[in-house]
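Ticket #4471: structure output looks truncated?

Reporter: J.K.
Steps to reproduce: submitted the chain below (251 residues) through the standard prediction queue, then opened the result file.
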Amino acid sequence: MKKLATERLTTILSRLDTEAGLSSLPATVEALRRALKVDQMLFCSSTGPDRSQNWHTLPPGWTARYTQQGYHRIDPVRAEAQRRVTPFDWRPLDWQSPAARALRADAVAHGIGPQGFTIPAHGPNGQLALLSITADRDDATWSDLTRANRFALILAAHALHHKIMSQPDAAPGEAPDSAAATPPAPRLSPRETDVITLLARGDSRGQIATKLAISEHTLRSYIETARHKLGAVNTPHAVARAIAMGMIPLA
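Returned output as attached by the reporter:
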């Protein structure tokens, strides 16, 4: 499966920086979908109670049906995204309940899936964004596609989420989380950069400790130091800020 070229990803995401407001999001989502050659793409952002926005290429009428049927209350994808920070495939999720099976069958009937892959992006104060791709592919083809483009999808999810969070009305009563409103990018040590990069790629702490041949205690120290340097309130926020500041290598 062909990997999305770094240059093409950079070109697509650059529109987020050159266009004011959120007018660039629909075209960006569609450009990403075409570049990845998937059937559907959805970017959903929630910045507070009753403050959700969606940009997608889903079939007409599906989002209204999703709400009308109350699928948001039983959707295994939403539930999984709320409790984890790393990307995940839809196949291992718990689809055993009658309600979940009905949701999946209805989605497939509307041309969504059956394969799916989601990247959560968390903000500093409980904000949550999801970038999901879906397609009708066999298991082997889908695994190849998501494995080849995992990091590109992570970067895209965080770039889109940062665009939302940088808007003046992203979180009522709070300043926008804009890299432009903060001091210049801090200087992370090479090891701190390695740690944040591997976190951004979706590796677990255990995997990172093994790859870098360090203890998990030492790893925690690197994460905390990097988090403070980045002015982040938690680890997902640190990853998001590092990506927004261009501190994560694209290759």
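Triage note (M.O.): checked the attachment and the full token line is present. The first strand starts at residue 40 and ends at 46.
Status: closed, working as intended.
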